[in-house]
């Protein structure tokens, strides 16, 4: 059954320009992925009739995969399917595919296609507003491959769901939040979505809603970023989640992974405590793939403080160079101050100058200057293939006594004292943490992107101030800034 649906969908994909589909954030699920997703559901013993919702149904691949999957359950006699789809280009193939499924299935299939906007048509219900339905339709199962596209913060869909939106949101997590709302209590939801929502301040409202009203039971990761969708070019990291609408947390979460959408027969599997995967006031989701990564979390989660708790904080560099071209200088001149880039971080130290263009700025804008004092510089961006995500350099003010002010380009982060200047031993101690293998692995588990986000770093668990200073003194004594030495020093504090 599903093979035919895929065949018809591919004909549609070939006939529709990619630019047109991208406008709608339209990426079609592969046959293997669709079958994997529906196999994550559970059918209660004795259940005869099921209701299912597919929002952003596209060509109906997931709906048809679900109907195909139900064929193995003799007790199920009736399927009531609701599909939301408002792209007129795809409605024809959607109806054709659902009719074909209905004809082939041994179950009594009733389907209804709703062409109104999935989000805005329900905003009164979702927000419990006057005029809304006090008893809106709820479903046993929700399945979806929602649109992947950013929308303006003033877009109708964002305005409809202020509870989960912050800034300019992405449609995929708005759909996921509404999908959870559409579930019956105890109902199950399976979505294929980017992993970007699992951390960061940008998605905090969504995580808080989604992980309060529902609980994760299964997460599937794809090792390859470009082999998830057939005939599509999607480079962001994508995951499959199964969630249940409940306030009760399960004891464990199952995490699986595969290289692509073609090798679900070669899956690695791991079951870990729920509190290890979903933790903290920020509701971060830690995507571990093996026992070694579980051990990383356990070792660092023994610390109960964060950088702000001990009086320091990571901040983002101040100067966006391409927006301030008029103040940039290639050579030092009267009134100029150094502008530090990621290129100035070399083997654990900060070197300046390095005969790079635009190494100086001349400005009176206070927002572009910072005091010349001790910092730990950390690169904001690294290449995917680089062995380390956290790359840092020690900056000591005494090395540049000729300056009272400096500036930092916004492609680096810096750690600064909240109440005063950091001591040298504290800077060195922070270097031990951020140059260690353990913290680098921790950050990779927390964030799958190549960007080092200051909000996430400020939420990472760290030892107490005294311990960090002790680590710094040990590092200063050895004068060995290698990763191996940092690992050795840190080992004594989180063994």
Describe the structure.
The chain has about 500 residues and is of the alpha/beta class. The protein folds into two domains: about 1-290, Rossmann fold (3-Layer(aba) Sandwich); about 310-495, Adenine-n6-DNA-methyltransferase Taqi, Chain A, domain 2 (Adenine-n6-DNA-methyltransferase TaqI, Chain A, domain 2), CATH 3.90.220.10. Helix content is about 30%, strand content about 20%. It has 16 helices and 22 strands. It has a nine-stranded mixed sheet, sandwiched between helices. A five-stranded mixed sheet has the order 13-17-14-21-18, with no helix packed on it. Strands 12-22-19-20 form a four-stranded antiparallel sheet. Strand 15 (about 345) and strand 16 form a beta hairpin. Helix 4 (about 60-70) packs parallel to helix 5, helix 8 packs parallel to helix 9 and helix 12 (about 425-435) crosses helix 15. The longest helix has 17 residues, at about 90-105. The protein is elongated, with a radius of gyration of 26 Å. The termini are far apart.
Layout of secondary structure:
Layout: H1 2-15, H2 18-23, H3 31-38, E1 49-55, H4 61-70, E2 78-84, H5 88-104, E3 108-114, H6 123-126, E4 139-144, H7 156-160, H8 171-181, E5 183-194, H9 204-213, E6 214-222, E7 238-245, E8 252-258, E9 268-273, H10 274-277, E10 278-279, E11 284-285, H11 291-300, E12 312-316, E13 328-329, E14 337-340, E15 345-346, E16 349-350, E17 360-361, E18 370-371, E19 375-379, E20 392-395, E21 405-408, E22 412-417, H12 424-434, H13 437-446, H14 454-457, H15 465-478, H16 483-494
Parallel strand pairs: 1-2, 1-4, 2-3, 4-5, 6-8, 14-21
Antiparallel strand pairs: 5-7, 6-7, 8-9, 10-11, 12-22, 13-17, 14-17, 15-16, 18-21, 19-20, 19-22
């Amino acid at each position: 059954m599903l093979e035919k649906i895929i065949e018809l969908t591919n004909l549609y994909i070939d006939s529709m320009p990619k630019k047109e589909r991208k406008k709608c954030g339209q990426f079609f699920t592969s046959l293997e992925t669709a079958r994997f997703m529906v196999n994550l559901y559970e059918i209660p013993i004795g259940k005869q009739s099921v209701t299912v919702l597919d929002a952003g149904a596209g060509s109906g691949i997931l709906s048809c995969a679900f109907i195909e999957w139900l064929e193995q359950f003799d007790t199920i006699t009736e399927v009531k399917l609701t599909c939301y789809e408002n792209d007129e280009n795809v409605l024809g193939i959607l109806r054709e595919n659902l009719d074909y499924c209905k004809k082939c299935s041994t179950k009594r299939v009733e389907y209804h296609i709703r062409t109104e906007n999935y989000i805005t048509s329900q905003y009164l219900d979702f927000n419990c507003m006057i005029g809304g339905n006090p008893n809106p339709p709820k479903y046993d199962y929700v399945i979806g491959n929602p649109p992947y596209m950013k929308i303006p913060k003033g877009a109708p869909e964002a305005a409809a769901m202020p509870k989960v939106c912050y800034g300019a949101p992405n449609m995929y997590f708005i759909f996921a939040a509404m999908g959870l709302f559409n579930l019956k209590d105890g109902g199950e939801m399976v979505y294929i979505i980017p992993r970007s929502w699992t951390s960061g301040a940008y998605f905090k409202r969504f995580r808080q809603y989604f992980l309060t009203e529902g609980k994760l039971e299964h997460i599937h990761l794809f090792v390859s970023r470009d082999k998830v969708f057939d005939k599509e070019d999607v480079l962001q990291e994508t995951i499959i989640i199964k969630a249940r609408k409940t306030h009760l947390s399960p004891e464990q979460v199952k995490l699986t992974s595969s290289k692509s959408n073609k090798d679900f027969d070669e899956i690695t599997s791991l079951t870990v405590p729920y509190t290890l995967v979903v933790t903290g006031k920020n509701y971060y989701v830690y995507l571990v793939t093996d026992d070694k990564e579980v051990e990383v979390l356990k070792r660092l989660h023994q610390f109960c403080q964060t950088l702000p708790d001990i009086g320091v904080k990571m901040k983002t560099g101040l100067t966006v160079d391409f927006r301030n071209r008029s103040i940039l200088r290639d050579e030092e001149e009267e009134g100029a101050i150094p502008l530090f880039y990621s290129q100035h971080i070399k083997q654990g130290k900060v070197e300046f100058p390095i005969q790079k263009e635009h190494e100086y700025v001349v400005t009176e804008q206070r927002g572009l200057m910072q005091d010349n004092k001790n910092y730990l510089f950390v690169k904001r961006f690294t290449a995917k293939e680089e062995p380390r995500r956290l790359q840092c350099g020690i900056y000591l003010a005494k090395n540049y006594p000729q300056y009272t002010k400096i500036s930092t380009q916004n492609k680096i982060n810096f750690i600064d004292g909240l109440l005063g200047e950091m001591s040298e031993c504290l800077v060195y101690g922070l270097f031990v943490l951020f140059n260690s293998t353990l913290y680098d692995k921790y950050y990779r588990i927390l964030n799958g992107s190549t960007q080092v986000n200051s909000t996430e770093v400020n939420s990472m668990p760290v030892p107490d101030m005294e311990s960090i200073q002790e680590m710094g003194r040990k590092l200063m004594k050895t004068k060995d800034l290698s990763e191996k030495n940092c690992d050795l020093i840190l080992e004594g504090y989180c063994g």
